[in-house]
């Protein structure tokens, strides 16, 4: 069976560095495979388009997989089939999956995993697929996952760390318009699994996306996080800034006690 060399491309620093250096070395690439989640940063989409042009200009096929149903539709409008016990817990069968959580990452499965599985399944009927994945040399723990044992990892072979990959991209003129200056990982901007530090930066540097996040949160039945809604986080961030300007702590008991009062009073 003929071999097909497929590069898995997310648009991030590691897969970008892997892809560009593979091309630089003249390594065999037949297909570059990208999954569009509908909710990437605008700067990421511009980066992906730039890479796509480079790939296609080199005569390499660039494939974009994208669920015809958008993230917002699945989150807010889709009517999923739920068990009776789940409906009882939710007090009915509300529309949409609502926000993803650590135990229910429907967005990853519906917008990436299922699409990739279906596409790769078709490829393996015709080819012996060799898939290249951008795991960095300092991400050895991810190599232990069963799925990754089936892939090729050029960055590991080259002993390139995440820092090396980012430096390589910067040296080649790819900077994602500064996204990596704010975030350690650049994925969906609306992800509720982001840290408080990342959410603070989202609000500060991307106010239009933060406003969209608030609107989405107000339209769904689930809470953005178990501890805070988006509006409550905004209240918290404002209160933090006020306290810091007064030279007061934002980590002690007094802060959390007064924060509860501030949130309660709206």
Please give the structural blueprint:
Layout: E1 3-9, H1 13-25, E2 31-35, H2 42-57, E3 61-65, H3 71-76, H4 84-90, H5 106-124, E4 128-132, H6 140-143, H7 154-158, H8 162-171, H9 179-182, H10 196-205, H11 207-219, H12 230-245, H13 253-264
Parallel strand pairs: 1-2, 1-4, 2-3
Describe this structure in words.
The chain is globular and about 65 Å long. A 4-stranded parallel beta sheet has the order 3-2-1-4, with helices on both faces. The protein has 266 residues and is of the alpha/beta class. The N and C termini lie far apart (65 Å). It is 51% helix and 8% strand. The model has no long low-confidence stretch (mean pLDDT 95). The chain is built from 13 helices and 4 strands.
Give short descriptive properties of this protein.
266 residues, alpha/beta, four-stranded parallel β-sheet, 51% helix, 8% strand
Distance between the termini: 65 Å
Lateral strand order in the biggest sheet: 3-2-1-4
SSE topology string: EHEHEHHHEHHHHHHHH
Q: Helicity, in percent?
A: 40-55%
Weakly predicted, low-confidence segments: none
Number of helices in the DSSP assignment: 13
Report the sheet with the most strands, covering strand number, pairing sense and barrel closure. 4 strands, parallel
Radius of gyration: 21 Å
Which range does the strand content fall in?
5-15%
Mean pLDDT: 95
> How many strands?
4
Please state the structural category.
alpha/beta
Q: Shape, please? A: globular
């Amino acid at each position: 069976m003929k071999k097909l060399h497929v590069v898995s491309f997310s648009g991030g620093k590691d897969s970008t560095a892997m892809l560009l250096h593979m091309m630089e070395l003249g390594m065999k690439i037949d297909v570059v495979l990208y999954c569009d989640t509908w909710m990437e940063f605008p700067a990421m989409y511009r980066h992906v388009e730039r890479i796509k042009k480079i790939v296609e200009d080199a005569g390499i096929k660039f494939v974009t997989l994208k669920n015809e149903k958008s993230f917002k539709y699945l989150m807010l409008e889709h009517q999923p089939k739920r068990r009776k016990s789940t409906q009882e817990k939710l007090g009915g069968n509300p529309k949409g999956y609502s926000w993803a959580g650590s135990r229910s990452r429907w967005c990853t499965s519906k917008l990436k995993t299922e699409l990739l599985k279906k596409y790769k399944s078709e490829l393996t009927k015709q080819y012996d697929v060799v898939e290249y994945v951008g795991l960095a040399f300092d991400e050895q723990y991810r190599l232990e996952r069963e799925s990754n044992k089936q892939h090729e990892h050029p960055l590991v072979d080259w002993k390139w760390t995440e820092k090396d990959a980012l430096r390589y991209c910067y040296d080649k003129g790819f900077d994602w318009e500064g996204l990596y200056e704010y975030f350690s990982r650049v994925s969906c901007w609306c992800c509720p699994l982001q840290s408080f530090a990342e959410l603070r930066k989202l609000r500060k540097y991307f106010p239009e996306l933060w406003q969209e996040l608030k609107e989405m949160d107000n339209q769904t039945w689930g809470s953005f996080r178990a501890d805070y809604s988006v509006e409550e986080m905004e209240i918290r961030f404002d209160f933090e800034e006020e306290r810091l300007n007064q030279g007061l702590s934002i980590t002690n008991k007094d802060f959390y006690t007064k924060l509860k009062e501030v949130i309660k009073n709206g």
